[in-house]
C-alpha cells in the first residue's frame, strides 16, 4: 500500500523498522540505542539482546516475533520495530512494515547482503519506504565494507528500485560497542551520527487534521490483566482512553466498542496513556476478538482501511495427538481438544500459519512458511507439556493453467573452496540450478542456486556433514515453477525395533555394524520405533532388547569389555528432516522419538507388497 502524503506532520515522532538478515546484529543495535538514549538506569541489570525475550529466541540466538520499543532523543520519540530475519517468520516482517515510515537496513560488513536481506528489502521497497543502510560489524578482521556497499547497490538495482530509493544514506557501525560514523574508519564514540541520519531521512508521520479517527491493527498481544491487546498504528485522528470506537471487522461488519485501556511504549515497558495522536504506535484493550488487519475508526464516520495481505504458506505437516505405546508417560496435555485449542490460540497472533482439518479427527494439517517456523511451533508446544505426533513436512503445490506448480527457493551457500564439488553434486541430485558463483579470493566461495523447496527438506543436515560443519546455508522463497518430477530422498533405510522393552548393551553392540544408532542402552523402545539409520537403502526390523544368555560355564571371552559407539541424538529439526513419508516423529516434553506411522511389522509388510503390485500394474499398463 503506497503512502500518501498528507498536509500535516508530527515532528516529535519517528517510526522506523530495523530489518536485516538473521544474525547481522539487529537486536544488539537496539540494545545500544536504548542504553545511549538513557532508557536504563546506569546500574540497572539488563539482559544482553534485551528484545529476544522468549526462551527459544535466547537459545537459538534469533528473533522470532516482531517487537517494538521506543527511545527518546532531544524531544523526539523514535518508535523502533525489531523484525525477524528468517523468511519463515516473514508474516512478522510484513506487519512490522505497515507500522513504520522508514527502514534501517542492517548488513554485516563481512557477509554482505544475503537472501533474507533481499526478502525484507523487497517488502520495504514495495511499501515505498525510505531506507538508511547501516553497515554493521566493521570491526571484524574480515570486514570488506566498500565491497558490501556496492553489493547492496546491485541488490537495489536487481529489485527494480527507482532513483529516489537508490540514493540512500550510509552509516558504518559497531553495534556491540555502540559506535557509529559516516566513514568506515572514523567512528564516533557513540551512535549520534546514526540518530542524526535517522531523524533526517525518515519522514515524520503525516496525517490529515480534518480526517476522522483511523487506526490499523498490525499485531496482537495478551496481558494477564486486561486480556487481548491490539497493537495498532494511529493513521489519523486521536484515540482516547474510554472513548466509543467503531470496530471495522475483517468480514465487512462494523461494531461499536469502547477503548477500555490504552498503552504506549516507553523503552521496554508499556505505560498507560490517556490519548494517542496520529502516527503513534499503541496497544489497545477492550476488543476480546479483534484480529490482525482490522480497523479502529470513528463511530460517527467509520472508514475501514484495506486489510493487509501476507504471503501464502509454502510447507505443510500433519500434527496430532501422541498415539505411541509410551503416550502419557511424560506430558500432561494429551487430548485432541487441548491440541486443537492450542493451535487455535496460535492462529490468533500468527497470521502466516493455517490449520486445516484432516480425515482423522485427532490430526490437523498445519501450513506455514518453512521448516523452522513449524519446528518452533512444535518446540513451544512440547515445552508447555504437550505430547504430539508430527508428520513429514511437505511442500504445498498449486495448479496454474491446469499444470501442477511447486515453490522454488533461492539458496545462497558460503563454503570453503575445497567443498565446491561436493555441494554442486548434492544440489544436482536435488535438481538445483546454479545462478552464479563468486570466489572472494579469501579461500571461500559464494554460490547461488534455484532449488525446488522439497529438495531442501533434509538438505541442511547432509550439507553440514559433507562440508564438515564449515558451510553456511540460507534460502528464501523465489517463485513457482512447474513440478520438477521425482526427487531422490535420503539414500539410507531405518533400523526399526520389533518388540517393546528396554534396549541392552549386548543388542546394541551387535547392531552397531548395521548403521548409526539413535538410542543408547537402557532406553525404552516399542515395536515400530526407529532406533537407528541403516547403512543400506531398505528398512530392517531388529531386536534391540536382546539380552546375553547366562550359563554356568566359564568362557574366556565372557568378561571382555564391549565398546559402544555413542548414539547420535536428533534435535527436532533434524528428526523432521530425517523421516520419510511412512515415518513420523513422536514429540514429548523430555524426548524426541522417531517411529513408523504403521507400528506393526506384518501390516507394514503387506502395505509395501501392495504398493509394489500397484507400481508393477501401472508399469504394465503404461
Brief account:
The protein has 622 residues and is of the alpha+beta class.
Shape: globular
What gap, in angstroms, lies between the N and C termini?
51 Å
Structural class: alpha+beta
Provide a count of the helices.
15
Radius of gyration: 28 Å
β-strand amount: 25-35%
Low-pLDDT sequence parts = 40-54, 56-66
What percentage of residues falls in helices of 4 or more residues? 10-25%
**Assembly category:** single chain
| Strands, total number | 37
Instruction: Outline the biggest β-sheet.
Output: 11 strands, mixed
- Mean residue pLDDT: 80
Task: Supply database-style keywords.
single chain
Walk me through what this model shows.
The protein has 622 residues and is α+β, with helices and mostly antiparallel strands. The chain has 15 helices and 37 strands. Strand 27 and strand 28 form a beta hairpin.
List the helices and strands and how they pair.
Blueprint (H helix, E strand, L loop, with lengths): L7 E2 L3 E8 L5 H11 L18 H6 L6 E7 L2 E7 L7 H9 L3 E7 L6 H12 L4 E6 L8 H14 L4 H4 L3 E5 L4 E3 L10 H10 L4 E2 L6 E10 L3 E10 L2 E2 L3 E5 L5 E5 L2 E6 L2 E4 L2 E2 L4 E5 L9 E3 L17 E7 L14 H14 L4 E4 L5 E6 L2 H13 L4 E3 L3 E2 L2 E3 L2 E14 L3 H10 L3 E7 L4 E9 H4 L2 H8 L5 E11 L10 E5 L3 E2 L2 H7 L3 E3 L6 E2 L3 E6 L5 E3 L29 H7 L4 E5 L4 E5 L4 H21 L1
Parallel strand pairs: 2-4, 2-5, 5-6, 6-7, 30-35
Antiparallel strand pairs: 1-9, 3-4, 7-8, 10-11, 10-19, 11-18, 12-17, 13-14, 13-19, 15-16, 15-18, 20-22, 20-23, 20-24, 21-22, 23-36, 25-26, 26-28, 26-29, 27-28, 30-34, 31-33, 32-34, 34-37, 36-37
Amino acid at each position: 500500500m503506497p503512502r500518501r502524503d498528507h498536509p500535516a506532520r508530527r515532528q516529535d515522532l519517528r517510526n522506523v523498522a530495523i530489518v536485516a538478515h538473521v544474525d547481522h546484529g539487529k537486536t544488539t543495535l537496539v540494545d545500544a540505542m536504548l542504553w545511549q538514549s538513557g532508557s536504563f538506569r546506569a546500574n540497572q541489570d539488563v539482559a544482553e539482546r534485551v528484545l529476544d525475550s522468549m526462551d527459544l529466541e535466547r537459545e537459538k540466538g534469533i528473533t522470532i516475533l516482531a517487537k517494538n520499543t521506543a527511545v527518546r532523543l532531544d524531544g523526539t520519540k523514535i518508535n523502533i520495530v525489531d523484525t525477524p530475519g528468517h523468511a519463515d517468520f516473514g508474516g512478522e516482517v510484513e506487519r512490522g512494515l505497515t507500522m513504520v515510515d522508514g527502514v534501517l537496513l542492517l548488513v554485516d560488513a563481512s557477509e554482505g547482503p544475503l537472501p533474507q536481506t533481499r526478502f525484507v528489502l523487497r517488502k520495504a521497497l514495495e511499501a515505498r519506504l525510505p531506507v538508511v543502510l547501516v553497515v554493521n560489524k566493521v570491526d571484524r578482521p574480515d570486514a570488506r565494507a566498500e565491497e558490501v556497499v556496492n553489493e547492496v547497490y546491485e541488490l537495489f538495482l536487481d529489485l527494480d528500485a527507482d532513483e529516489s530509493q537508490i540514493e540512500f544514506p550510509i552509516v558504518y557501525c559497531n553495534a556491540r560497542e555502540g559506535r557509529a560514523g559516516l566513514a568506515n574508519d572514523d567512528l564516533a564514540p557513540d551512535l549520534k551520527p546514526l540518530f542524526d541520519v535517522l531523524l533526517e531521512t525518515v519522514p515524520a508521520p503525516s496525517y490529515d487534521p480534518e480526517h476522522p479517527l483511523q487506526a490499523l491493527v498490525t499485531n496482537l498481544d495478551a496481558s494477564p490483566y486486561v486480556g487481548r491487546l491490539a497493537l495498532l498504528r494511529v493513521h489519523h485522528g486521536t484515540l482516547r482512553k474510554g472513548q466509543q470506537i467503531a470496530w471495522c471487522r475483517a468480514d465487512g461488519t462494523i461494531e461499536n466498542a469502547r477503548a477500555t485501556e490504552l498503552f504506549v511504549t516507553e523503552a521496554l515497558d508499556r505505560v498507560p496513556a490517556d490519548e494517542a495522536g496520529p502516527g503513534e504506535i499503541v496497544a489497545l484493550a477492550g476488543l476480546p476478538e479483534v484480529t490482525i488487519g482490522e480497523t479502529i475508526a470513528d463511530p460517527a464516520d467509520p472508514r475501514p482501511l484495506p486489510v493487509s495481505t501476507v504471503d501464502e504458506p509454502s510447507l505443510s505437516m500433519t500434527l496430532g495427538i501422541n498415539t505411541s505405546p509410551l503416550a502419557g508417560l511424560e506430558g500432561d496435555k494429551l487430548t485432541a481438544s487441548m491440541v486443537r485449542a492450542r493451535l487455535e490460540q496460535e492462529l490468533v497472533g500468527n497470521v502466516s500459519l493455517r490449520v486445516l482439518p484432516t480425515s482423522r479427527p485427532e490430526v490437523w494439517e498445519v501450513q506455514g512458511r518453512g521448516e523452522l517456523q513449524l519446528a518452533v511451533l512444535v518446540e513451544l508446544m512440547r515445552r508447555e507439556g504437550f505430547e504430539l505426533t508430527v508428520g513429514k513436512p511437505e511442500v504445498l503445490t498449486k495448479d496454474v493453467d491446469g499444470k501442477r506448480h511447486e515453490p522454488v527457493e533461492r539458496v545462497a551457500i558460503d563454503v570453503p573452496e575445497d567443498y565446491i564439488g561436493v555441494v554442486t553434486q548434492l544440489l544436482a541430485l536435488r535438481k538445483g540450478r546454479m545462478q552464479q558463483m563468486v570466489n572472494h579470493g579469501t579461500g571461500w566461495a559464494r554460490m547461488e542456486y534455484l532449488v525446488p523447496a522439497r529438495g531442501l527438506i533434509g538438505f541442511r543436515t547432509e550439507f553440514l556433514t559433507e562440508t564438515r560443519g564449515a558451510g553456511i546455508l540460507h534460502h528464501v522463497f523465489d517463485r513457482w515453477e512447474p513440478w520438477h518430477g521425482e526427487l531422490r530422498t535420503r539414500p539410507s533405510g531405518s533400523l526399526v525395533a520389533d518388540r517393546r522393552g528396554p534396549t541392552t548393551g549386548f543388542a546394541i553392540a551387535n547392531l552397531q555394524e548395521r548403521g548409526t544408532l539413535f538410542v543408547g542402552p537402557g532406553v525404552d523402545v516399542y515395536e515400530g520405533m526407529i532406533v537407528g539409520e541403516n547403512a543400506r537403502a531398505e528398512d530392517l526390523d531388529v531386536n534391540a532388547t536382546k539380552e546375553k544368555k547366562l550359563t554356568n560355564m566359564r568362557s574366556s571371552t565372557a568378561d571382555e569389555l564391549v565398546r559402544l559407539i555413542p548414539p547420535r541424538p536428533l534435535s527436532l529439526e533434524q528428526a523432521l528432516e530425517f523421516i520419510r513419508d511412512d515415518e513420523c516423529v513422536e514429540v514429548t516434553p523430555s524426548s524426541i522419538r522417531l517411529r513408523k506411522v504403521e507400528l506393526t511389522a506384518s501390516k507394514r509388510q503387506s502395505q509395501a507388497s501392495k504398493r509394489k503390485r500397484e507400481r508393477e500394474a501401472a508399469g504394465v499398463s503404461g
